[in-house]
Structures
1.
Amino acid sequence: MDWGAIFGNAAVELISPTTAAYALAALGLAIHFGFTGLLNFGQAGFMLLGAYGYAIPALKLGWPFWACVLTALAASVIFALILGIPTLRLRADYLAIVTIAAAEVLRLIFTTNEFDAVTGSANGLSGFQTDLLALNPFPEGRYGFGPFVFDNRVWFFLVIAWIVVAIAAVFTWLIMRSPWGRVVKGIREDEDAVRSLGKNVYSYKIQSLVLGGLLGTLAGILFVLPRAVVPSYFQPTLTFFIYAILLLGGAATILGPIVGSIVFWVLLSFFSGFVSRAVEAGWLPFMSQVQAGQLRFILVGVAIMLIVVFMPQGILGNRKDLAFVK
Amino acid sequence: MLLSSETTSSRPVKTTGLHVGDAVPGAKKHDPILIADSVKRTFGGLTAVDIEHVEIPRGAITALIGPNGAGKTTFFNLLTGFDKPDTGTWSFDGRSLAHVPAYRVARMGLIRTFQLTKSLALLSVMENMKLGAKNQVGENLFRSLIPAIWRKQDAEIEAKAMDLLTRFKLDAKKDDYAASMSGGQRKLLEMARALMSDPTLVMLDEPMAGVNPALKQSLLDHILDLKASGMTVLFVEHDMHMVRHIADWVIVMAEGKVVAEGDPYTVMEDPAVVDAYLGAHHDTDLGTDAEHVEALKELIDDEQ
């Protein structure tokens, strides 16, 4: 059994661009769910808009990368407003229903053959990173240290991703310690009470939905930079993984989503490496390689259940909160 | 009766001469702060509130009483924008409140509390208080990013909150979660929080419900303090001792309507009030209902 490779692959997930992208998406969800109490079950939809909002103008219109990022962000704001304006006056559950449905509608629109010329339907889009890669300061080749050996392309995306995550974390920290954050946290506890104190709850909820959605959209861009855009990435399970990361790290924390994402991906990689090699070595005779590929999700699920049962506040959450959870 | 509230604290000074003419339902006031006209709210077939005319006197403590289901809380919700009536006009300080959303009503200086206390459980007591302050620059998303813009105002708000918390004897709990406090303390916190915005009219929905007698006395004093500092108070309450003790004016509601108004001593004698609480036939002997007995007998005969 090659333990070195298993741990090496798991260690790579500590800093991989995908980990950063999931961390950022979870941070957006922390603004929604952890701080404001909005049940957004469509974070995958926001990420999809980031991915396609970036890739389509880059490929089809040849726009520079910054214009593509702005297009994605604009699409995200419009999506958030369409979802939020009718539902945020209603009870919290309605937003959950509408967001999960809207995210699926988006994914199916981008999957259908009807718009193949623009979206590439199920095959998706690739090669949209050219404009950004022209700015890559890393010299050609594969290098690194220990298990962290990547080519210059991955190093570039990795650095961008973590810089964006760091900026987003500082931004979220700044707004959540301000009076704005106080109002939003008050809305999470009891929106009628906050309304009775003269705050425009509806407006704050929309601001929060747009902000968290923007982080989700940026996460979508970071997620697809090292790969091609394929609609099947953006299934509802993506949203559930991000919820798992959020709960793992601590819902109303800034660093929780980041730590949660790292733990999630390291565990996932470790289990997948371990199980597939265990099958290879004949330790699990009742199991095929294909089944082994699915088992990792079961094991991650069990690990997350254990954490939620024995550490419901998450890794970085405040233990004190727990005493008062209704 | 050695230690009753009557002997330990001085009797509050009642404000009198609030009304014009007779103290009848819908009586005119010399200086009304809140006027409601033909406010009606139905839930399906049930008319919860149907008020022709009512005025709340300024600078006084008005009690809104009535049996359960009389529509007191619904009336509160209508006045504060938490619910919309089917018809009617109502104004606060001369400004119409129709179609004004709840948060704007609060900004106009009409602050309410809730029957089921709404403390913000996972916010500290101090954060609860600070949330009550009006016109905070840091509550704007873009300004919130630069602490230099809001820090000074926030410090002022904190000082004011500390002052109020000391008055309500909650200063020792300022860093605790609101969730860690007792029910009575939460009532105090809710009232203190309402005062953070310097309201002109404070509406308290059952401030005494579930509060122990010792805390009740201090809550009473706080309500009297509100009046002393020039605020108008309107409260819903079932505790008649309290109503008699501090209210300057009492409005009685039953089945959605105002059935009586007056000062607390005379209004309790009003037959309409006795009817509202006990039913109009409470002293009629039902045993000698000859007509029904005859009809029943005939029915039984027919069956045979």
2.
Amino acid sequence: MSEHHPAVTAETPNAPHDHDHAHDVSKHVKGYLIVGALLLVFTFITVALAYVDFGSHTANVVVAMIVATFKAGLVAAIFMHLKGEKRLIWQFLFFTVFFAIGLFFLTWLHWIDPIFGTHHTHH
Amino acid sequence: MQIPYETTARPDTGLYNAKLGIWLFLASEVMLFGGLFSAYVFLRLGADDGYWPMGLLNVPIGTMNTAILIASSVTVVLAWAALKMRQWAKYKFYMLITIICGIIFLAVKLTLEWPEKFVHFGAFIKKDKWAEYEAYLGNEHRTKLGLSPRPEISGHLHAVEVAVAPEKKGDFDSFLIKHHLVAEAGTDPAHPVLVVKDDHGHGPRPSIAEKLVRIPGVKAVAYEVELDAVNADPTSPDNDRPHFIPRKRSDKVATIKAEDISSWSAFAPKHSSYFAVYFTITGLHGLHVLGGVIIFIYFYLFGEKLYRKNPEHMANRVEVSGLFWHFVDLVWIFVFPIFYLL
């Protein structure tokens, strides 16, 4: 097998690694804390914006989804290391998004061709 | 057997194998939650005006749980960073915080949020009877302001008024004894009913009330409800829109005739499309949190052996489980506004 396992005996073992050297990681720690703080701030902003009247309820939904997408983007890019991640994973994600949209489209189809007799009071 | 590429990148993918694996798994998770979110979107778009409930969940508690989940995402990435820097004690510390956050999140769901829903009572009033319950619905006021109508009266059951066929009195009485309920005669001699309460003077739980009115020979006549604030004072500007701080329940009791109700239940999945999709999505999400916590506990308790042998492998395990955990956080980032706020 291609794995190379050096014997580690010290209290703080130190195996070689091909990327992400320890000092690189320590540089990122501050960034993780800042992103965490940003996510908390944007959570409170989401809550506050829900009680602001943007003219229509649809507008409130759009604003909340924009903030949520921004937060999700932060989590994916920084915490999940998508920023600077290998090309293959981005390719996977492209297909995932494509098929997820396809899934929403399939659900949407009932809108133009509902099953006869199923329209009643929805609650 | 040695699994290849635990720590080194496989030449053709450029990734260690577990990372490729977890991203494939997360792609399938996107489809799983995507299906449910699409159900949410189209159930909501298809709901009649006023029938999609708003403001029923506790926003401060939801906000707190969101903050807890975000904090745990930070600590799990710090735990991974600690392993990369070969700081075992720090890793243990951050992992422990992550586990505690996950457990708090679940505990809040299972003790503060869900159980309260199962004792709450809501009755949708038939459209042609809305005028009779105007004092609790306030729909004239809402129409004037251009707000969606309010079709539901909700609160907690204060009593159930029933009529019992004399030959079925035995079944009825034994049901009362079994469920610690008492029945007294109603005060209106023109409409003789039995008023059923529990031995603390409150109504039965909705699930028990359902069984009660389904006993053959027992007919529901009316439901007495200790009203939620929105129904106690429906025309107050305070109740036009949902609030951040949930309003206290009033002590006002309303009597709703059974024949005027189109459907009633606890705030359980069958109450409405809203609660059906709420319990499905938050339940599935909760199971993911539980799964993450179990894995983290395993890494916390039994990770040291692997760390001593191959610290980079251990760091990669934490990175991969962390990716799963961040995904669960990411789902919650959407769940929170769509159910609690919008």
